[in-house]
Design a protein that fits this description.
single chain, 250 residues, alpha/beta, Rossmann fold, 2 domains, six-stranded parallel β-sheet, 6 strands, 12% strand, globular, NAD(P)H_dehydrogenase_qn, NAD(P)H-dependent oxidoreductase, oxidoreductase, NAD(P)H dehydrogenase (quinone) activity
């Protein structure tokens, strides 16, 4: 498989840096071809602005401007290069530390600038379909909190719910198949042996990258939603939380 390793951490000597090194080595040993995007090392600009699309002097509408540039082949060079990496990949490994219940801003800005209208959305298909259908997405996330506190009954909430905007609103929306995230907790307190065990766990997940069953989100075209895009009354009756949108076929 061809992998895009999308990495967002400012310190190469960190636990994240170690996991990336071990993970890429494991992926390569498995026969995968890995392309990296190390956002901090690249000096990635995460800000969507008129500077990306200087044509026109009227009101700046980011979606329309990026769509026009995408169709005309006039996107900024850095954005076009990342789109080429993404489109050429069979799977994406997205690795980052959990900061304030989300990814670092530099990573959010990668999605903002790369998944433009015409590629990430506005394609006529979404939630289980779309331009990125057929690709798999594995999230590797470290957290200072212990893993038990990021579980369904943990004080911080379930990791799957914390990452809902990424797993469902980004991966699944664009057609990618989201895999269960790999969480490494207590990241700033791990012993050397525990760090190696975390790297081994990542290698295990990479071994099943092409065969692991994705999270079973309900596709928009599954028939589970009515014309107002709400779950039908007979689907997951009585459930009001995010879990109601799990249970589709994969």
């Amino acid at each position: 498989m061809k992998l895009l390793w999308l990495y967002a951490h400012p310190e190469p000597r960190s636990l994240n840096g170690h996991l990336r090194t071990r993970g890429i080595a494991a992926a390569t040993a498995l026969g995968h071809a890995v392309v990296q995007s190390d956002l901090y090392a690249m000096g990635w600009n995460p800000v969507v602005s008129r500077a990306d699309h200087p044509d026109g002097d009227g009101r700046f509408r980011a979606a329309d401007a990026s769509h026009a540039a995408f169709r005309a082949g006039r996107l900024p060079v850095d954005v076009a290069a990342e789109q080429e990496k993404l489109l050429g990949a069979d799977a994406v490994v997205v690795q980052f530390p959990l900061w304030w219940y989300g990814p670092p801003a530099i990573l959010k800005g990668w999605f903002d600038r790369v998944l433009v209208k015409g590629l990430g959305y506005g394609t006529g298909s979404r939630y289980g379909a779309g331009a990125l259908a057929g690709k798999r997405a594995l999230t590797v996330v470290t957290a200072g909190a212990r893993e038990s506190s990021l579980a369904p009954r943990g004080i911080h909430g379930s990791l799957d719910q914390i990452l809902w905007p990424l797993l469902h609103g980004t991966y699944f929306y664009t057609g990618m198949a989201p895999l269960r995230p790999l969480l490494v907790g207590s990241a700033d307190r791990l012993t050397e042996a525990e760090a190696e065990a975390a790297a081994d766990a990542l290698a295990d997940r990479l071994r099943g990258l092409g065969t692991e069953r994705p999270l079973a989100f309900r596709a928009e075209a599954s028939g589970d939603y009515d014309e107002r895009l709400r779950l039908r009354h007979d689907i997951a009756p009585g459930e009001l939380g995010l879990e109601a949108h799990l249970g589709g076929s994969t």
